[in-house]
């Protein structure tokens, strides 16, 4: 009996001993010893954690909702900036680093000094950070179809993140988009599973580098598991969303064939965190899908990392909050992106465990997964920002990489009358459209703000800047955002007709369900510039194929430029002939929204039921063949 008492006392001493006490003796506890195997460090730390501390590790809180003084005592495991979550003190890399490092210092005051992990949606560069390099959205990288380029973008993005103390990227989206009316189409590489798989794995390798914990490595988070890109129009029950967060209405064979392969590849590429989808399948919210989250992902595919919920994603399971949490955690969610009321989540977890509705085994499995990743990332050894990487933020080198990506993302849809390339000494060039001179429009959502924002929101070059830089001093460039050029008259008072008109038609920035579009229509004034130009070039800035059937007839040339990000001069490199057109469509382009959703298996190749442009289409400047529409309406 006495022996048992002594053992209990020893166990109590270990469980409550603080590193500081032991550190005072200069020796490290095993979990603090980086020379030991990760599994051994995890075992040691798990043996020291109280149940409350374990629940803290499963709690991910949005930075505007956390009280700093709670981080240490509650042992909060993770924090995040949602879209637009820049520091209240100001949006600079230094202030980001001060903010995140400040939270980390609080986390390290916890009894066992466990670092928190800070996450952000750096989905096309460190997008919330003003001055960061903003790369083309994934829809453009799909058209570029260059794994090496995509990997280099991941690498550069990781550097700019680490400069601000952030080691967790909620990216890449690996959705295989089946209906481009979805507002998140631009976050996806393609409608094609193989292309999504290839490019997302490359990006993961770029983000994680030579392995978690190596210099310049951040944790990737392929998302949203599984089938987020296959939801059915009209099936969403979230806000006024139509397809985002809706129902993936396919059988299991289709789910496995179209939507699962990117995750299999991501796991092989070393992904150690995966985000769960808001969408539903099999009559159930994905956050409640034990079969897919645990049996398939963790069992069959052998995923050893941790599953993070989406933004209050488990709350959508059922209106009874406690029941929702119990269902989600038991389904296999390991970390809950609460993101607001963390006290409520923690209290519900304690009660559920006390009632036996969530077993301690499930809690230990979740926490073991989370801690394993934190040790693998080297977070215990380097929890803070790396100021030596601050010069990489928005650096010339990164912007050159982004410019290369823009070059390669452009798809030439039509080029009659040798409209492209434009000669640099063209005497008169009219430029129309708000999108021609707007960094915010050319960047799209997840840029500085969650929904993105029009205007000069961050340093970069617009397409108009690029045009002015390209043309010789003999050229006269006239810009009007409304494409009205009626006041352009010659010395005799006659209307001036431009040698070349460049009309930029653009979608306004949007993110998630707010971008769900029933008609993909583009409001623009192409007709005005058409009347005033001998040759007309249309540049389309959009997060997806949009309806341009009428504009196509009016134009001599049409270029799909997607959402290029801060380096608009990457567009003009190509339309003025310094670089070739090499991009190919990663999404089938509809003639009308009524054609959607496409049945890719039975898609006609010609006639009015055929798409406007098929998957893989793209002219090059040297090609003699130009666009021939086989629908003669
Ligand atoms: C959002 C998105 C998800 C993002 C998360 C954090 O709702 O669905 O992609 O990572 O919240 O911003």
List the helices and strands and how they pair.
Blueprint: H1 2-16, H2 19-24, H3 38-46, H4 51-57, E1 59-62, H5 68-74, E2 78-81, H6 93-107, E3 117-120, H7 138-144, H8 147-162, E4 168-169, H9 193-208, H10 252-259, H11 261-268, E5 273-275, E6 280-281, E7 284-285, H12 290-300, E8 306-308, H13 321-331, E9 336-337, H14 342-354, H15 360-376, H16 396-409, E10 411-415, E11 428-432, H17 439-443, H18 463-470, E12 476-480, E13 498-506, H19 526-531, E14 533-541, H20 549-554, E15 557-560, H21 569-575
Parallel strand pairs: 1-2, 1-9, 2-3, 3-4, 5-8, 11-12, 11-13, 13-14, 14-15
Antiparallel strand pairs: 6-7, 10-15
The chain binds alpha-D-glucopyranose.
Kindly describe this structure.
- With 633 residues, the chain is α/β, with parallel strands linked by helices.
- The chain folds into two domains: 2-391, TIM Barrel, CATH 3.20.20.300; 410-595, Rossmann fold.
- It has 21 helices and 15 strands.
- β14 (533-541), α20 (549-554) and β15 (557-560) form a beta-alpha-beta unit.
- The protein is globular.
- It binds alpha-D-glucopyranose.
- Alpha-D-glucopyranose (GLC) is lined by residues 82-83, 121, 170, 223, 310-311.
Tags for this model:
binds alpha-D-glucopyranose; 6-stranded mixed beta sheet; TIM Barrel; 633 residues; 5-stranded parallel beta sheet; alpha/beta; Rossmann fold; globular
